[in-house]
């Protein structure tokens, strides 16, 4: 029963991230009433300072900045003036900011071409850019035509071959194709977006001897669809048939950051290595309008879509989704990329705290694949402007931050989380000794649906702050908090309290992997709201204004939430972490591991799972007692003890970082969470233990279980010492 329950809900486990898939959005059906609806008064009760922060947000200003960020080419490394303007505005708002430059390896599109050659000799050339729409001015910009449909870091190459439809190009899709003897070697893959991170799709195709891969957005993964009678953008909520999802194909599950400087910052003159995380076969993304003739040409060849008998194999287009290959039908794919070592610019703004050894970081990336980027990432960028203003307003009253606050506007996130990773690599020792937490906003607003990923110790605070944040939107009744909206629109696993674990896909990754907890917050599209044209020219200011957040109230909602969150984290004498929830989640991770070896007593003994479970139970008891102790009013009167509790809560997170990293991917050091190796976005808990188990390497699995057990015991000792 329990496992079925988990499986049934796993579709709702959206990762909140920039590089993410928007699918499985039919989640507003019969919400499970698992979390009590808000029990606090409305409007929320704020302290004087919180009131200043909550009311300082101006939707007019957000509108102005949303427009600013979405009207010029700001692909990674291409718009220094936008970085300078961001620094200038933050500084004017009272947060002293400057640029942090790195020199990194990037690739830009030079020549992209895709032609279908039918068996009868007819040709069909695919359009590798979106239609320009008069209504949506940035889609008509000449610079929009200079940012064609391409994949960051895709291999240059020219290939012509028969092609095979491979579903979502998941490892399991390829296993199913092999089982049915579909010939893959030397062919080009045609894959649907959705499921695994696009870099993994390329890696899987490459591993099966395929010579290229083409990916398309399938309308069957959308809520509103033309096929369901809905009009397409700009006239309605369905996907525009020419929209294309760009994106990176670097294997960030191996390591993120500059591919030529793994583990160290890309300062001028540093030694560079040959990247080991980039694809060797060329790839291109295409629209569904252009995918249709490609799919149709395969109809009647190979195994039919229904014959594959796999969930999600057949999509929403009028084709049989047959595997092919179709004899004589080929794709000619040209992908020519310009390779460059080139500067990128993070903007770093700092408020020094009175405690120099405690730091909270708030970040958003600034670069986009397209001229727009109104949701990804510049809804976050416009919000960050207002956040610096809110703290500036508070400082004008004489308020001093107890802790350091670092505001970051990252560059080159889209390619491989580069700006944040290089910065974390540069300041690793300082961050390791002072950082308490990292708050991320990437796609701040792409719809009405609150979505949050967070390390467990932050979740209780996040819920509390959601209850203090008014959810304002043109469609909501006005007496709703963010918590109410979150509760109304989501379905939860009770143990998650509505949060996902953080895998990868946005700038929190480098932080989490050095044992710094993080939160990633967004308002996502729902199954009824306008389709999100992720990484397409239609993620534009016009779309945002007409289809999502006309008055930028949702933007303000996200900004207020993050601002109040940051305020409590920097201002509370006792850091508002919940170590009980942290401990509870460690136990859930162990329980999930146990599910995998249910009934296999020998295996359980071999990998020492009952020892790890016992350590987990002790941690749970100790953490609960710790949380009870520190919440006594008298505890707060003892400054020395509070300081000690704060140090302990900061350092407990670091205990789970294993210096040498996970087997085969040393960048990933957090023994509790890493990106799932077959998915790339989703988190895998206890990754090294689980992967070793699945690989049948019980010795390695035991080694990691014992290592985690040791960390759990140390965590218990530290918490008990306060
Ligand atoms: C940089 O972005 C700004 C704001 O969107 C835009 O006005 C400007 O043209 C862009 N610069 C370049 C070099 O594209
Ligand atoms: C679907 O495709 C078939 C075969 O090509 C065609 O006969 C039919 O009209 C199409 N249906 C729609 C709704 O376009
Ligand atoms: C913050 O403190 C550092 C180190 O003392 C100092 O160099 C820097 O100028 C200060 N920055 C601000 C904005 O006050
Ligand atoms: Zn993004």
Automatic annotation (TrEMBL):
Keyword Protease on entry: yes
Keywords annotated in UniProt: Carboxypeptidase, Hydrolase, Protease, Signal
Coiled-coil ranges per UniProt: none
Domain PA: 161-237
Domain called Peptidase M28: residue spans: 346-548
Gene3D superfamilies: 3.50.30.30, Transferrin receptor-like, dimerisation domain, Zn peptidases
Domain of life: Eukaryota
Official protein name in the record: Glutamate carboxypeptidase 2
Species name: Decorospora gaudefroyi
């Amino acid at each position: 029963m329990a496992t079925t329950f988990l499986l049934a809900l796993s579709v709702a486990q959206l990762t909140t991230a920039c590089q993410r898939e928007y699918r499985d959005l039919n989640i507003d059906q019969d919400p499970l009433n698992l979390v009590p609806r808000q029990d606090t008064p409305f409007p929320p009760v704020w302290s004087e300072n919180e009131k200043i922060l909550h009311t300082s947000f101006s939707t007019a200003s957000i509108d102005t900045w949303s427009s600013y960020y979405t009207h010029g080419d700001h692909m990674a490394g291409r718009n220094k003036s936008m970085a300078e303007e961001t620094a200038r505005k933050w500084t004017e708002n009272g947060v002293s900011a400057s640029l942090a430059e790195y020199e990194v390896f990037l690739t830009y599109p030079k020549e992209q071409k895709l032609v279908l050659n039918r068996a009868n000799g007819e040709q069909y050339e695919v359009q590798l850019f979106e239609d320009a729409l008069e209504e949506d001015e940035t889609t008509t910009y000449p610079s929009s035509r200079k940012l064609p449909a391409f994949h960051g870091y895709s291999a240059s190459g020219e290939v012509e071959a028969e092609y095979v439809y491979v579903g979502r190009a998941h490892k399991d899709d390829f296993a199913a194709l092999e089982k049915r003897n579909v010939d893959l070697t030397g062919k080009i893959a045609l894959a649907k977006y959705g499921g695994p991170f696009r870099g993994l799709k390329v890696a899987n195709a490459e591993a099966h001897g395929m010579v290229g891969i083409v990916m398309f957005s399938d309308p069957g993964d959308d809520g509103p669809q033309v096929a369901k009678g809905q009009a397409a953008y700009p006239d309605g909520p369905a996907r525009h048939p020419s929209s294309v999802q760009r994106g990176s194909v670097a294997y960030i599950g191996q390591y993120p950051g500059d591919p030529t400087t793994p583990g160290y910052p890309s300062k001028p003159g540093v030694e560079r290595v040959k990247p080991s995380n980039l694809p060797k076969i060329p790839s291109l993304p295409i629209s569904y309008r252009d995918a249709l003739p490609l799919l149709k040409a395969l109809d009647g060849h190979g195994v039919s879509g229904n014959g594959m008998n796999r969930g999600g194999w057949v999509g929403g287009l009028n084709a049989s989704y047959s595997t092919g290959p179709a004899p004589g039908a080929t794709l000619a794919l040209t992908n020519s990329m310009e390779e460059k070592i080139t500067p990128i610019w993070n903007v770093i703004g700092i408020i020094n705290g009175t405690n120099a050894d405690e730091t909270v970081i708030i970040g958003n990336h600034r670069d986009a694949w397209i001229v727009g980027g109104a949701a990804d990432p510049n809804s976050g960028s416009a919000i960050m402007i207002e956040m610096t203003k809110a703290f500036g307003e508070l400082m004008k009253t004489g308020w001093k931050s107890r802790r350091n606050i670092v505001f970051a506007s990252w560059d080159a996130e889209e390619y491989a989380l580069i700006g944040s990773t290089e910065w974390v690599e540069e300041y690793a020792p300082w961050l390791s000794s002072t950082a308490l937490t990292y708050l991320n906003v990437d796609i701040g607003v792409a719809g009405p649906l609150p979505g949050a990923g967070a390390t467990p110790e932050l979740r209780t605070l996040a819920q509390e702050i959601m209850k203090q944040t008014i959810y304002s939107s043109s469609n909501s009744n006005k007496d709703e908090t963010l918590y109410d909206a979150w509760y109304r629109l989501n379905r939860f696993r009770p143990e998650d309290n509505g949060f996902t674990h953080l895998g990868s896909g946005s700038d929190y990754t480098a932080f989490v992997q050095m044992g710094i907890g993080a939160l990633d917050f967004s308002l996502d599209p729902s199954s009824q709201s306008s389709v999100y044209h992720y990484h397409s020219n239609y993620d534009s200011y016009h779309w945002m204004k007409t289809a999502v957040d006309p008055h930028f109230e949702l933007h303000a909602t996200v900004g207020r939430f993050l601002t109040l969150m940051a305020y409590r984290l920097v201002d509370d004498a006792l850091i508002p972490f919940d170590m009980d929830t942290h401990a509870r989640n460690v136990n859930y991770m162990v329980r999930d591991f146990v599910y995998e070896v249910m009934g296999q007593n020998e295996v359980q003994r071999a990998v020492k799972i009952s020892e790890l479970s016992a350590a987990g139970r002790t941690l749970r008891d100790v953490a609960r007692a710790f949380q009870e102790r520190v919440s006594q009013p008298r505890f707060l009167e003892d400054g020395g003890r509070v300081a000690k509790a704060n140090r302990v809560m900061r350092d407990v997170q670091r205990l789970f970082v294993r210096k040498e990293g996970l087997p085969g991917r040393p960048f990933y050091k957090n023994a509790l969470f890493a990106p799932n190796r077959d998915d790339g976005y989703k988190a895998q808990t206890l990754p090294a233990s689980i992967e070793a188990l699945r690989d049948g390497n019980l010795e390695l699995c035991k080694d990691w279980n014992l290592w985690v057990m040791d960390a759990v015991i140390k965590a218990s000792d530290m918490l008990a010492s306060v």
